[in-house]
Amino acid sequence: MLYFLSQKLLEWLHGTPWEGDFSWLRLFHYITVRSAGAAVTSLALSWWFGPKVIHWLKQLRFGQDYRDKAEEAGGLAARVLSKKGTPTMGGVLIVLVLVFSTVLWAEWWNALIELTLLSVIVLAGLGFYDDYAKILQQTGGGTPPRVKLWAQTAVSGFIGVYLWLTPSTSRLVSEIMVPFCKYPVATDAAWLGILIVILAIVGTSNAVNLTDGLDGLAIGCSLIVAFVFLVFTYLAGNARAAAYLHIPFVSGAGELTVFCAALIGAGLGFLWFNCHPARVFMGDTGSLALGGAFGVVTVLIHQPFVLVIAGGIFVIEAASVLLQTGWFRYTRMRTGTGRRIFLMAPLHHHFEKKGWYESQVVMRFYILCVLFAVVALATLKLR
Prior knowledge:
Blueprint: H1 2-13, H2 31-59, H3 69-73, H4 91-105, H5 111-137, H6 145-165, H7 171-174, H8 190-211, H9 217-236, H10 239-245, H11 255-274, H12 283-300, H13 306-310, H14 312-335, H15 347-353, H16 358-378
Helix pairs in contact: 2-4, 2-11, 4-5, 4-11, 4-12, 5-6, 5-12, 6-8, 8-12, 8-14, 9-11, 9-12, 9-16
């Protein structure tokens, strides 16, 4: 919005005596300036509205008045404080601030921005409905998994088909890019591309949701991943840099840098209230939206498999659940007694049950997430 207004004002003032006085408005043309503005705006709004949102959630009794699954399972000797009664749905703060800052600083009429915001809003709505169902039931059950999966598949399928049918973006789906390779490993593979789009968005959305189990864990890891894509989106939207690094150039992708910057600001602001001991949880409202956003962004810059590296922590968390569930069902079918690989899944609860303090688990996962981020950034040169 600010970009549009500044450019219009410069057009109106062109050739007038006031043109020189307002020449500073040209700063809004630069993505770096608008990205910095989006980050600062998101951070400031999160700090400003954070206490108000927490108070509002408490008034509405949108709190977790049931024990979470980790506490119900027992054995968490290192967990000093119970999470019962902490307000959830804090993802509302992240999403509202993120959307507002992006619309304020980015070219919101950019198709890539529109698709990203669409996924964030739809998945946030799905998460909000799930959180509300959990509060009503007070059991932690929420929306049936198949309902969430169908809704996620629908929005990701729509994005994949839209990209394929639009001439300017069809190659984002029909050509398959993988890390460390300069050229597509497959072309004219739209069916495979659409499947990858669905897996990227649905998989990441659920993976971030599974990671959201300890104070500050999901949002902290999301901040690190967002920084990786801040770099990737800027380079993908810069024709000269993309050509030099032999990465796909995507016209308009630079505006996604503003989105990533806004996400970083909103995430930092939320982490202020979500760090241990958390005053608020993001809930599915935030985790589904953030995960979906990462999936969409990585598809729009034609680097879907980089997300597997940058979001390595999310992949590990999701894999631990799949392995635990699969092995338990297999051994129960073969022996009559289900067996477990981990003490508890997702993986962060396994380490809690081994006696690690919650803050230890979170900080060590941060370190691993940084290492994954470094490897992901290395793919820019190792091609």
